[in-house]
Design goal:
This protein is an alpha/beta fold. The strands form 2 sheets. Strands 2-7-1-8-9 form a 5-stranded parallel sheet, sandwiched between helices. Strand 5 and strand 6 form a beta hairpin. Helix 5 runs antiparallel to helix 6. The protein is globular. The model has no long low-confidence stretch (mean pLDDT 92). Bound molecules: guanosine-5'-monophosphate (5GP). Guanosine-5'-monophosphate (5GP) binds next to strand 5 and strand 6.
Length: 182
């Protein structure tokens, strides 16, 4: 089963998914393609497949992507090949931006879409500041974007409020298991 975990930037998608995968070795993560540069500690083929703009455009032209999007000036995409090979009892988790979920569901109707939302906008602001990788202007832009992103929750199967990591991971895991049992 394909599971998409999405939500506004800074909501904690990556942390939730990392903890989910740490607890459940039977789940694994889809590796996206991106044109952004690796951050310290990130590895090609582990965190992302880091490619050039030319390679990204070429792969769009060749129809290799299930979906692709621009996020803050960089390109991100999910390879069709990583989704086509998923077996029914296998759990493949995609951590992608809010527009990605509906595109994946369009191609793979059995995909489960989970939207993480912050308890409130102030909390989102605090998390972005805490992360420390953005300037105040970027943070303001991210918050405005976050308010828009919340309107996309309606396109998802489940909306989970990320109050604390442990509870969110339990809820997300519970949703995945119950859908899998159907
Ligand atoms: P970051 O650069 O911080 O790793 O990710 C930036 C944003 O891009 C995050 O919201 C992340 O979920 C999103 N993203 C990562 N991979 C993909 C992808 O394959 N498709 C889409 N649509 N968004 C992605």
């Amino acid at each position: 089963m394909i599971v998409v975990v999405s939500g506004p930037g800074g909501v904690g998608k990556s942390t939730v998914v990392a903890e989910l995968l740490r607890r459940h070795p039977d789940m694994h993560r889809s590796i996206s393609v991106t044109t952004r540069a690796p951050r310290p500690g990130e590895l090609d083929g582990v965190d992302y497949r880091f490619v050039t703009e030319e390679q990204f455009t070429d792969w769009i032209d060749k129809g290799l992507f299930a979906e692709y999007a621009d996020v803050r000036g960089h390109h991100y995409a999910t390879l069709k090949s990583s989704l086509e090979s998923v077996r029914p009892q296998e759990i493949l988790v995609l951590t992608i931006d809010i527009h990605g979920g509906p595109s994946i569901k369009h191609l793979f109707p059995g995909a489960l879409l989970i939207f993480l939302k912050p308890p409130d906008v102030m909390e989102l602001e605090r998390r972005l500041e805490f992360r420390g990788s953005e300037t105040p202007e970027e943070i303001a832009g991210r918050i405005e974007l976050g308010q828009y992103e919340m309107t996309c929750a309606k396109d998802y199967d489940y909306v989970v409020t990320n109050r604390d990591l442990e509870t969110t991971v339990d809820i997300v895991d519970g949703i995945i298991r119950s859908v899998l049992r159907r």
